[in-house]
Amino acid sequence: MTDPNKPDDQNLDDEWAAAMSEQEGDATPSEEEDPWAAAMAEQAAAEEAEGDDAPAADSGTAAQPASDSVFQPLEEGQDKAVPRDLEMIMDIPVKLTVELGRTKLTIKQLLELAQGSVIELEGLAGEPMDILINGYLIAQGEVVVVDDKYGIRITEIITPSERVQKLNR
């Protein structure tokens, strides 16, 4: 190329042809470039060794059965439940909330509230209260007073299927 602003098409074609021929000269595939060929050759060698019922020449390439040290054998009398290590989650804080009841208000009703106003809740008197952990219903209970402090006595633990039904309320 003599002038970069006006490339000669013939010179450009010659340069491309030279570059392509250099790449073609280096195009001898090695095992690194073609891992599939190496894997196929290894598989064929393993199949040949299996067909001869003779041990493979290279023990590193043939599959070997796992020993009892790798996988423990299953026994009939063995307990199926494995004790779980819960120690690592014991110090995680959770938020427990006891819900007395709920209601819906309009903004107008909210602005009309004053000290001494009574808000009617959906829950009935004597009805068990919902116990929520991080916002998820897990149990129900009743209010108790112990040494002038409120508490809650758990009366029922919610099963997973009941939790799904309660979410639809």
TrEMBL record:
SUPFAM superfamilies: Surface presentation of antigens (SPOA) (SSF101801)
Composition-biased stretches (Polar residues): 61-70
Bias kind Acidic residues: ranges: 23-35, 45-55
Keywords assigned by UniProt, alphabetized: Bacterial flagellum, Cell membrane, Cell projection, Chemotaxis, Cilium, Flagellar rotation, Flagellum, Membrane
Pfam families per the UniProt record, alphabetical: FliMN_C
Membrane-topology annotation of the record: Peripheral membrane protein
Domain of life: Bacteria
Subcellular location: Cell membrane; Bacterial flagellum basal body
Domain Flagellar motor switch protein FliN-like C-terminal: 88-158
Region of interest called Disordered, as start-end residue ranges on this chain: 1-82
Entry keyword annotation includes Transport: no
Keyword NAD appears in the UniProt entry: no
Function: FliN is one of three proteins (FliG, FliN, FliM) that form the rotor-mounted switch complex (C ring), located at the base of the basal body. This complex interacts with the CheY and CheZ chemotaxis proteins, in addition to contacting components of the motor that determine the direction of flagellar rotation.
Family label: Belongs to the FliN/MopA/SpaO family.
Protein name according to UniProt: Flagellar motor switch protein FliN
